[in-house]
Amino acid sequence: MTTAKCANLTSGLDAAHVAAHATGYAHPAYAQSLAEFGRPITLPASGATLLCRTIRNTGRADAMAPYPLLCCPDWTALAEDMDRLASDAHLLSAVAVTDPFCPLSEQQMAAAFPDLCRRFKEHHVVDLAEEPSSFIDRHHARNIRYAAKRIDVEHGAGTHDHLDGWCDLYACLVERHGIEGIARFSQESFARQFDVPGLTAFRACQGGRTVGMTLWFVQGDRAYYHLGAYSQAGYDSKASFAIFADVIEHFRRDGVRWLSLGAGAGASGDGDDGLNRFKRGWANAIRPAYLCGRVLDRSAYLALSGPGCSEYFPAYRRGEFA
């Protein structure tokens, strides 16, 4: 993919500071893992990293937060950075889905993204201060006992020794669900993600074979469920239940306070699909993520979007993931 010419907004000092203190989605290396979808630009005040994307046949560009969430080392400086971004003559708009643990009020988020700021998905979260037996679904508890007799779980920092195995599992998931676009991830992208500070991998083994794996990013007192994938043997042995039970115990011992499990499938994420039921069975709270957008060049944006209105933002990209 050809990337656009965007202003280099990162100073060396700021980039070094962010790289030294941030982890997980907030670390610039995570955005670098998605560089095939746009050129990463790190915002100097907040430390957030966006992807600068070419708008086909225009010579212009826009910015989007890395999939799946915008995470900022300093949320209080985000509005300042977005004001600065508006001075880039190449950019038409910016869009992001915010971290459900974003500390800003809706009014403060709207100051950074005045054109769009609405509740997007309810994310399932786990407060690890509570005893897990008090909130884990009884159906999940039965499956934990079933899986415990068949599955061993190993965990630790993501290592490239397991990269090929992970990519094989994820390829099965892609085929099973027809995943396209940025969520498909390439092997090169995963290789970079395995080097992002804060990555922890949990691997389900059966008879010495890897049958499932989940990837998590730790940021401060929170751990974010990034991705999970399983072989057919993993599904049959209910390996996901063994892994998530181990995840909860591991992060509780490590002093992590919150787990972010993400939302359900689909545009709203509030359905009764299997993924939503699975996550809901582990959670004891929910937090909203917001879909936020800002028009940076209004006349060019309207000219490119055409007549009528669209709930999709930016409107000129509607249908891009259809």
How would you sum up this structure, described in words?
This protein has 322 residues and is α+β, with helices and mostly antiparallel strands. The protein folds into 2 domains: 12-121 and 290-317, no CATH class; 130-256, Aminopeptidase. The chain contains 11 helices and 11 strands. The chain has an 11-stranded mixed β-sheet, sandwiched between helices. α3 (78-85) runs parallel beside α4 (106-112). The radius of gyration is 20 Å and the shape is globular. The two termini are 19 Å apart. The mean pLDDT is 91.
What sort of overall outline do the alpha carbons produce when their principal axes are compared? globular
Q: What is the count of distinct domains?
A: 2
Strand order of the largest sheet: 1-2-3-4-11-5-10-9-8-7-6
Find the structural class using helix and strand composition: alpha+beta
Q: Give the SSE string.
A: HHEEEHEHEHEHHEEEHHEHEH
Write the layout of secondary structure elements.
Layout: H1 12-21, H2 28-32, E1 39-42, E2 49-55, E3 60-64, H3 78-85, E4 91-97, H4 106-112, E5 116-127, H5 138-148, E6 152-157, H6 163-177, H7 187-193, E7 199-206, E8 209-219, E9 222-230, H8 232-236, H9 239-253, E10 258-262, H10 274-280, E11 285-295, H11 298-305
Parallel strand pairs: 3-4, 9-10
Antiparallel strand pairs: 1-2, 2-3, 4-11, 5-10, 5-11, 6-7, 7-8, 8-9
